[in-house]
Amino acid sequence: MSVSEAQLRTKARVWQALAQSGLDISALDKATLESLVDLVTEAALIEIDSEIGQAEKVATPASDDVLNDHKEDVLWEGRPFLSLTLHYTITDERIRITEGFFGKSRENIELVRIQDMDYTQTFGERILNLGDIHVRSHDPSNPEVVLKNVKDPENVYEILRRAVLNARRKHNFTYREEM
Fold it and tell me: Which of 46, 70, 97, 113 could be bridged to 138 by S-S, CB 3.0 to 4.6 A?
């Protein structure tokens, strides 16, 4: 289920609960009532998401030591908004995508293989501070990957961008673009 579908279903449930509650809402104008339902819907979705899983973990080193040592360090971990089965991990060497509840499938994308990346946000996602990060790489099994409904996508994008640049520098790896 997408975020917009979850919003619509939750909003419908809030309207239904309001209608069945027997509360006298005749004193409220339509715009105020709709704003109240929107506010309750977003608060409910954020609370549900925080109960589903733990918050993202972000490494915040005082310097670039985390990126320059010889072991693989986790820079960020997270999952899509309202997801139970999908998990993303960004390390200083790769992006790891794990999917599944009982059985697990894993996809790894080496950072030195990443060619381009960007992030997008719809209006609804901007309200909830969510977004999608699009990654294009030379990975033969999956050249285009989308990290969907990531919390704080601008920050995650910057973590990933810096990690890619440091991985390229560490391995003396460059790309030449054709003109």
Answer: 113
